[in-house]
Protein: diguanylate cyclase
Organism: Stenotrophomonas chelatiphaga
Amino acid sequence: MMRRPLPWRYRLLLAVLAGLVAAAASHGRWPGPLDDAVFDRYTSRWTYPPDPSLLIIAIDEASLRQIGPWPWPRSVHARLLDRLTDAGSGRVLLDLPFSGQDRHPGADAQLAAAIARNGQVVLPVLAVPARADRLAEERLPIARVTASAAALGHAEIQLDADGVARGMFLHAGTGSAHWPALGLALADPSARVQGLPTAEDHPAPGQWVRDGYLRLRYAGPPGSVPQVAYVDVLEGRVAPARLHGQRVVVGPTAPGLAPPLLTPTRRDAPMSSTEYHANVASMLLQSRTLRVMAPIAQHALGVLLVMLCVSGLCGGRAATMLAIGVGLPLPLLLSWSLLRGANLWWAPCATLVTALIATALWAVWRIASGRRGADVDTVTGLANRPRFELALQQETCVADRDCRPLSLVRVELDHGSGHEDRPGSQPGAPLPMAVARLIAAHARRPRDTAARLGHVGFAMLLPDTPPGGARQVVEDLIADVRRLPWVDAAGTARTTVSIGVYCRVPGPKVPADAFLSGAEAALRQAKANGGDGYVLEAG
């Protein structure tokens, strides 16, 4: 028999409850690690050729061996900048800290002069996080060097809880987000790139403020952006044509000098901050930014998908199969499609986990209801014949042990009562259902059993009920049936039942089968008497 769907009001209630759970999970980012794992899976191999205008001048191990131990005098960087100026390079990002005075006299002046001659140098602003005894602060290069720079940019690298760099803030600063990211300053600080607004309207003084969040799409694993060694450029071993017009990122890549960064591309090969900034610039130059869906839209989409899934689970068989076969994988497919088709990241796991939990609860409920349904008549909700016969055996043993009376009542609708037992009549028609509800209402005690034994045949098992009590129950039932608002085709009320009652104290001579056969015999006698009445056999 096909499973009937829940009424719409219950389906809507369950769908709304599941939607609220999904909204709470999405707002609280409860499955955040799962979302990050999905994002890594989607983007780890989604690479692209880096922008051809980018070049990294790497402070690598070979450069350290030939030039000397770190830190180098700033006059060395001045010589490198002059090489780039002579070659006609484009913007130059010096991913190096210049916040203190150089220990070599005159080195700062040489660097400032070289920066001024180049005219396109971008310098980093370091973020010093707040501590218990001090506020957050911006650490700029020394004034002499800063005055000659073409632009400044914040050097903060946003790391997730697991230490992976998946996103960035386009702007940040103390008190307000006024510094562009280094990659943005290198690419085009005037570009109108939109990120997710995150800055507070009125931040506290001295607070480090970030704004314009984006997810990163890396050009590839570490080593994807072209590199040349610092010492090779310094010594003139790189042709000027290789440097002409290039956006250059100068920074450390040697192990121990460059802090390693984990990225979604490869967990076993850390990336240097220098290459990170180059990847940001490449992404911005080629308009490959990955926007993040606004929180309200994120929550609303998840709630909608969960509500549709739960509504389908509570529907008929076709709706349930559609909810499981389509509704469960849909969040992952939709997230992938939005990312690849619209460069928009929607975190799917709050929706997916809620839908999976709802499906698991639905499966448990279906198994439990299926077990209960093995003992229940699916049309009327009363006990079925196997359950009734088991109850009869159990109550017969109890009554025999306690020497207490047991009454069995057989009930059938009379012919001509608006629903005859003939071909074409429906077992779920309104009148038999109404009679079934009345029988269940009169078998009201915890141990009483109401059952459906046939097309229009019912039974009641009344433990610890003497003949007088059984008579009262039967007479009340007959009176209630007569009051049912049922009219036949001729316009005459015809709702009547015939009832047979068998009441005994069980014993060796009165087994369980005797109760059912005795009640059947009394029922036949009631029908022979014209119906609309009862016959009680007591002893």
